[in-house]
Design goal:
The complex is a heterodimer. Chain A is mainly α. Chain A has twelve helices and two strands. In chain A, a hairpin with a 2-residue loop joins β1 and β2. The longest helix of chain A is centred in the first third of the chain and has 36 residues. In chain B, α1 packs antiparallel against α7. Classes of the chains: A mainly alpha, B mainly alpha.
Chain lengths: 299, 338
Amino acid sequence: MELGVITDWLQFLFMGIQRGAIYAMVAMGFNMIYSSTGIINFAQGEFVVLGGLMMVSLTMVLGLSLVFAFFVSVAFVTVVGILMERLTINPVKHPSVLRLIIITIAVSMLLKGGAMCVWGKGSHYMRHFTEGAPLDFMGATVMPQTLWIIGILILLVIGYVVFFNFTMTGKCMRACAINRDAARLAGINDRRMVMLSFALSAAIGAIAGIIITPLIQMDYARGALLGLKGFGAAVIGGLGNSLGAVAAGLLLGTIEAMAGGYVSSHYMDAIALVVMLAVLFVRPGGLFGKSEEVRLKEF
Amino acid sequence: MPLKDYIGFCILICLVLLMPHLMVNDYYLGVLVFAAFNCLACIGLCLLMGYAGQISLGHGAFIAIGAYSSGIFTTAFGWSPWAAMAAGAFAAMVIAMAVGIPTLRLKGHYLAMATLGFASIVHIVAVAATGFTGGPAGMSGIPGLRLFGYPLDSDLKYYYFAWAAVIIGLYFAFNLIHSRVGRGLRAIHGSGDAAEAVGVNTAVYKIQVFALSAVYASVGGSLYACYVNYIDPGPFDVMHSVMLVTMVAVGGLRHLWGAVIGAVLLSVLPEILSMAAAPLRGIGIAYRPDYDILVYGGILLLIMMFLPDGLFAGIASAGRSGIAVVKKYARGGRIAGK
């Protein structure tokens, strides 16, 4: 009996980490665009959906190898992100934040509609990255795909830290995020940095979509909720703080899975959103942010 | 209220009276009744977006609160539909304040995400709380409205009633924006810091406008529930909240007339598109209602990029330049006549 309780708990924990890793990646994508432009990109969830659906088509329909299809899918969504920035964000001169946010809402509608036209309304099955029986860990089962998700999240975080701390481009992006005018005076092409932030954020979204699709069966309409929970993670971690967002994403996923397991599966989706609202109301700077920072921050 | 707006009201009233005579059947009249409900929600949303400069992505939830209040209080507690409507409006106001007070005191657009999260929660509860809301199957048997004992039992009667409600709501909104509160709001939109410096309490004004806009949406929802007599969670999803923002943005953020135009245009657009499906099929394009979202997204994107003040501002500036051209020619004519 004692073991059964622990087994259940572990099972929910694994499920939570697996969901949370996806929220963490979506939140990292939000933060990149937020840092460079000050806007929340409502099309972030659609990047996830596009990545997943593209991967399904390349592997299950065209029969390409996983690794090749992975890179093609990420490249495809990255191009979508770049096009979005070049065609809809960049041409707007003297934009207000309100206007840019509505533009990203419009783009998300177009991407959602486009995905529905291309892939239809049904959900799509994709095989797991590695064949093989689920692993057994103290009675709880762990899908090999979950290990892939955790591994890729760790790689992404390492890549993120290296990129923003040890490369010139990453440092330029950080400079733009801190003070755009000063960065421009120092000779940084800030418009290019905005484009780069859309490209990176689309790529991260695509990776999240690709690795979660074998577990949830992607369909065109999932973008909104994935995006919203990813935003929840970004808020809980403190907007603009990507490492905080990773921790918050894992926390949010775990809370959600535990609530789904122990309280009510009907209200599982609502609980993550209630946590997000609670943090937004009580500590808008995020759990890891300083409360005075948020007064200066604007989005 | 400037003379221009009184002329606008006259045109609106004439159109409302004229439309039923142009309708071939009651179905299209029904479409215009739904347009009136959207109009009410959009008037409130326009006050919030255009005058307080904040986005709410949760107005679908306030419509749901109005509709479900009407449904629950009339069927389960036997209240009159009017009392239920008032209860819904009060609930919407209180909830809007609960969501608005913490988020609107912050700078920026935290409200957008808070309302989006809140709207998703309301939709999830509407689906899951089967005891109260009937769950996905919905609730039926909601009584229709009676006006001074006179039942609004046909599409035509409800059409006049719904649009009368829109006109009253619009009149109230116009009075509000030409009052002290309205001037304060416009100052906030111009520059929050400057408004604060001259003594406008920006947070309080924003919270009040948000609560008022929630009441508008809730009344629209109650009227909807009393019209169709049946509600289910379907129409109150997050997509509907996004549609309301689209309507206001397409019509024009900066003017209440824009909200009316946007709400009516986008409410009847699906009908226009389904009528256009037949000729499109003739030239080899199989148009399905599924594609509506692409049309909406495309319209919203184009308007926001090229006509950021919306269709109404576009029409108004086209009208002004038209008048200028006419004046120029008239003057030219006089000079030539000399």
